[in-house]
Amino acid sequence: MRLSELVATSAAVAGVGGRLEKIRHLADLLGRLEEREIEPAVAFLSGTTRQGRIGVGYAAVASASDATPAETATLDLLDVDSAFATLTAVSGKGSAGERARMLRALFARSTSAEQDFLRRLLHGELRQGALEGVLIEAIARASHVDAARVRRAAMMAGDLGPVARAALTKDAAALDAFVVQLMRPVRPMLAETGDSVADAVAQLGEASLEYKVDGARVQIHKAGDAVSIFSRTLNDVTASAPEIVALVRAMPVRELVLDGEVIALRPDGSSHPFQITMRRFGRKREIDRARDELPLTPFFFDCLYADGTVLLDEPLERRIQTLDQIAGPLAIPRVIRPTPEAAEAFADAALARGHEGVMAKALTAPYAAGRRGAAWLKVKRARTLDLVVLAAEWGHGRRRGWLSNLHLGARDPETNGFVMLGKTFKGMTDEMLAWQTARLLSLEIGRDAYTVHVRPELVVEIAFNDLQASPVYPGGLALRFARVKRYRTDKSATDADTIQTVRTIAGR
């Protein structure tokens, strides 16, 4: 299939507001793909590439965009996928220049519309409203397979491309092959935000409360003596935490998948700030320096698989029982079916130990891999939102030369864009200002005299006192007394809080 056909479909999807119309356009395209084209096409329509980051920055893309566009569409999907694979493989001295040259050659073969699509794809700015949920529905329609089966297979695979290929070229039964598989991470279950401990417990009914630790989310797989640790974003980080590998290797089961967090603790048992823990997951030289100074402690809170038994569909209460039998004292502190008084006391104890708050979880709920649902509620004493940096303004006075005032946006699933909620320059240390200036300049997509506009990739946790009506911002809401709590380098923009979450907090 020509790239131009996919580009036209992307434009058509972006041009309609109705979900059913988007699904119809996507399903029509998916039904015309050859088998080898399915995975790259699904990646492109999801706003990414099969290769992930291909090692080209804004400057290289901007330079390639200057290439005179082709008059006739000749590029196939597989041509582009192959070019990205080749770009990713380039390494060594002079690799940046070689990648830039190859990218320019690809753009020279592209029409004007194709160049625009590729530029937005590589910048992470393909705003067409084709979120994964819409794509799943389109795959289901094109393959005549129930959407729930496609969705579950995608959760198990951690990648929609292979699932689409199986659904479109085989049959519904082929999706059953996507199950929990050791050493292949499943997408983590996510939580909504609760207003208070009392409200969360009342909402869930039979509930478990556990510490909400300010650590790094991990999923750990064990097969015999082999142990692998995966991050929240499903990257393999095993080499960063050898002490956790040793602990899991010693557990009394042969096969295991655990969900939890790891955190660096002070000698008194209180937790270090999140940024301190994340030193263990940085560059190799930083990891080597931090290992002896910052040993990691695991807090396991779920068990997804144990010695041949898949527990995803089991209620949380059974998963907890299995976890306690296996992990013992390494299981996170929790209380089951607490009274209101016991729940408040438990939350106070969590805060006293330096943790963020508590997680409230429905004891009857299964593990909804890859989904954010009301069966898990995070309750923090101070209100916070995970927002995306859209731009930053140059500082004045002592902050001159640093990017300081952040423009903050919430994710909008309907448009696959972001809704600005305000600005803040508060809560930043000199070290943070220096780091964010370098990081934001690496994401730059344009600027004026005062502001640098960036690719919406960097997630920051913002504490705030309240939300107020605003005639200035398009969402009609603005943060009040916003301040930076920390950067969430473990999260991608797709993990940011949504504008609907913001509206719910505001009572709209």
Instruction: Tell me the helix content.
Output: 25-40%
What's the alpha carbon Rg, rounded to whole Å? Answer: 24 Å
Strand content: 15-25%
Low-confidence stretches: none
Q: What's the end-to-end separation, in Å?
A: 45 Å
Question: What overall geometry do the principal axes of the alpha carbons give?
Answer: globular
Helical element count?
Answer: 18
Q: What's the average pLDDT?
A: 90
Q: Which structural class should the secondary elements be placed in?
A: alpha+beta
The total beta strand count reads 19
Major sheet attributes: 7 strands, antiparallel
Question: If you had to describe this structure to a student in words, what would you say it looks like?
Answer:
Helix content is 37%, strand content 24%. It contains 18 helices and 19 strands. It has 508 residues and is an alpha+beta fold. It is globular, with a radius of gyration of 24 Å. Strand 12 (403-412) and strand 13 (417-424) form a beta hairpin.
Key terms:
seven-stranded antiparallel sheet; 508 residues; single chain
Task: Provide a concise account of the structure shown.
The protein has 508 residues and is an alpha+beta fold. It is 37% helix and 24% strand.
